[in-house]
Amino acid sequence: MKESFSELRAETYSPEYISGLRWSIVILFGAIAVVLLGFFMDAVSDPSTDTASDMIFLLLFLIAGSLAGWLAYEMIRNQDEKISGLLINHQGILFLNTNEKVLSAIKYYDLVKSGNPYTKDIFSEFASHGKYSDFRKNLYVHEKDENREPKKKMVNLDVIPLKNRYDLIGHFLKGIKMFRPDLKIDPEVYKDFYLDEKTLRYTPENLKSDMKVKIITIAVIIVVIIAFRYFF
User: Cβ(124)–Cβ(192) under 8 Å?
Assistant: First the structure.
């Protein structure tokens, strides 16, 4: 069984491209911080400016400087602790560093049933962060928590920039069907990740069709809003 299940690796952008892009962002925030510091110094030396203006420039400088410093730290910190690759095989999803060491994993045999008759074992939904939600859906599974109770867990593949996100999700679902046929997959998962329900392969045509529907819907909403604003 294991031999019949092929491996699939994440396809990412070149390390040089990603590194260059990240350092460009660091330099940009650093330059903004320097400019804001200059504005702050000018404001402090000018007696005609009020304290509120001084504090605004100082606050913006601290924000930009902190972002630049944090991003630079993330760039130079120990690469062995950072995820740089993904591998899906007969075990599950393996999150790897640059030396191919497994940093974490979501294994098929660690997955459990949801324990809720109204919730599928494998499903998709928008990830919420406080009051806000992501614009696209994420895949969720269930694992046992410290009390041995089922707890949903997001399959976060966006820890690195991916070219084949939907292919990876489809391959992971294929592994679940092969190694954990007892788990139930919500049919909406296939639609949300543009997968063929039979082959579990990514179908770009479904994505294009979905994008067209969303664009048309947004356009109609905008037209309706403009119509109500100016004609009613």
Answer: yes
